[in-house]
Design brief:
The chain is an alpha/beta fold. It has helices spanning about 20-25, 40-45, 65-80, 95-105, 120-125, 145-150, 155-160, 175-185, 215-220, 240, and strands spanning about 5-10, 30-35, 50-55, 80-85, 110-115, 140-145, 165-170, 190-195, 205-210, 225-230. It has ten helices and ten strands. The structure holds S-adenosylmethionine.
């Protein structure tokens, strides 16, 4: 049988937020390569014969280098296997998909990208926060917080500060830098800012503040990673539209990311 790789988005956390296509290919996999932020129930969906290979970061140990993951993917597909590369959220949003697809393409192997619900969109939704809103927010941007502490960032923070809605991923350890950078780039310090931790799961927690008060509020609240930050008028909608009760979903033992 000809091998093929499927670069699959697992969705933002809750297992049944994977797409039907993602679940279909997972159920036909011979090998599954996965990292952190993958609901464990999803691994049970792969056939019993499928090899399950963890390629993420382990505490105190280095993550497998991206090149090593690429090589592993290529080798397994060359061996004729149906390989699912399972990634948190959407594989095309801060998911290294281009590197893995490029390695497969260079080796002349076939692959398919199966989109998933990105945490950038799905996690705010679970806190009652739509990213756009008629009359108030007609555009949004998604950025990684790494850029806020990069002196050589190519991102224009004045443009980000002017976005009606800004979603910041990997924000927890750089919350001070992100809020300060947005304020110094011209964003009103009173702008609503909401942090959502471990979204869509039984451990979801929401911290609603403003750009100027959020870093202090988080010092006290200590929301654990991973977390999504939403900045903009829509971030206040969690006050009235929060609908998700985390106790309504079963606990699962996710390997949470340590940013
Ligand atoms: C390396 S990025 C990968 C993003 C992923 N490809 C996606 O589309 O969601 C990891 C970041 O996603 C966010 N994230 C992922 N899952 C999350 C969840 N369940 N709750 C809150 N944030 C989450 C956090 O900001 C985390 O630091």
């Amino acid at each position: 049988m000809t091998g093929k790789a499927y670069l699959v988005g697992a969705g933002p956390g809750r297992a049944d937020l994977i797409t039907v296509r993602g679940l279909t290919v997972l159920r036909q996999a011979d090998a599954v390569l996965y990292d952190r932020l993958i609901p464990p129930e999803l691994l049970d969906e792969a056939p019993t014969h499928a090899e399950r290979i963890f390629v993420g970061k382990r505490p105190g140990r280095h993550a497998l280098r991206q090149e090593a993951i690429n090589e592993l993917l290529v080798r397994l597909v060359r061996d004729g296997l149906q390989v699912v590369r399972l990634k948190g959220g959407d594989p095309c949003v801060f998911g290294h998909v281009s590197e893995e697809a490029a390695a497969l393409a260079a080796a002349g192997l076939s692959y398919e990208i199966v989109p998933g619900i990105s945490s950038a969109i799905g996690v705010p939704a679970y806190a009652g926060i739509p990213l756009t809103r008629r009359g108030a927010a007609a555009a949004f941007a998604v950025v990684t917080a790494h850029e806020a502490s990069e002196a050589a960032s190519s991102i224009d923070w004045c443009v980000l500060a002017a976005m009606p809605t800004l979603v910041v991923l990997m924000a927890l350890t750089r919350l001070d830098a992100v809020c300060a950078r947005l304020i110094s780039a011209g964003r009103d310090p009173q702008t609503p800012a909401t942090l959502i931790s471990r979204g869509t799961t039984a451990q979801q927690r929401v911290l609603r503040a403003t750009l100027s008060t959020l870093p202090d509020a988080q010092l006290h609240a200590e929301l654990p990673p991973p977390a999504v930050l939403v900045v903009g008028e829509v971030a206040a909608l969690t006050d009235t539209l929060a609908w998700f009760d985390p106790t309504s979903v079963p606990e699962h033992h996710m390997l949470w990311e340590d940013e």
